[in-house]
Design a protein that fits this description.
about 45% helix; globular; about 70 residues; mainly alpha
Length: about 70
C-alpha cells in the first residue's frame, strides 16, 4: 500500500491540485498502518468540499486496482 500511496495516488492527487502531506517513510508507515497515526493521502482530500471529493475520487482511487484486505 505504501508504494501506491506514496507514488501513483500522491501523484494523481497532486495533479488535481490537492496538497498532499509528505509521506513518513516506509518504516514509519508500516509501524503506524491501520492506527490513528497512519498516513493516507486521502486525509488531505477530506478537507475539500463534497463536490471536489466527488470529482477527485473516481480519478484517484483510494486503493490500487485489485487490492483486497
Amino acid at each position: 500500500m505504501y508504494v501506491y500511496y506514496s507514488g501513483p495516488l500522491t501523484e494523481c492527487l497532486a495533479g488535481l491540485g490537492v496538497d498532499v502531506s509528505p509521506e513518513p517513510g516506509l518504516t514509519t508507515f508500516v509501524e503506524n498502518y491501520g492506527t490513528d497515526a497512519s498516513w493516507n493521502p486521502y486525509d488531505d482530500v477530506a478537507a475539500l468540499s463534497p463536490d471536489e471529493i466527488n470529482r477527485i475520487t473516481p480519478k484517484c482511487p483510494q486503493e490500487p486496482e485489485g487490492w483486497s484486505y
